[in-house]
Design brief:
Layout: H1 6-36, H2 44-56, H3 60-83
Helix pairs in contact: 1-2, 1-3, 2-3
Length: about 90
């Protein structure tokens, strides 16, 4: 069995976590603005700050939102392993 490349995995996890912290809030804001109108409490930075504070106070919805990109990658990897197992 091939060993896991921890440096590569850490890079992927860090990039996806950064995306979850900085890109996802902007996406949520833009989609919400398009479908629901202006965010009542302010702009995109206000929404991002709220997500970040909820993340730091361990609110599950914020954790799912921030970790979502990495969790999706892990899910797709697991499906790929089940669907197409490596041949010996």
């Amino acid at each position: 069995m091939q060993g896991m490349n921890w440096k590569r995995e850490l890079t992927i996890a860090s990039a996806l976590l950064a995306g979850g912290l900085f890109v996802i809030p902007v996406g949520v804001y833009l989609v919400g603005q398009r479908f629901f109108g202006e965010y009542a409490d302010g702009g995109v930075l206000t929404l991002a700050e709220r997500i970040w504070s909820d993340f730091l106070t361990l609110r599950p919805a914020a954790w799912v939102l921030v970790l979502g990109p990495y969790l999706i990658v892990l899910l797709l990897r697991g499906i790929r392993r089940l669907w197409w197992p490596k041949k010996l």
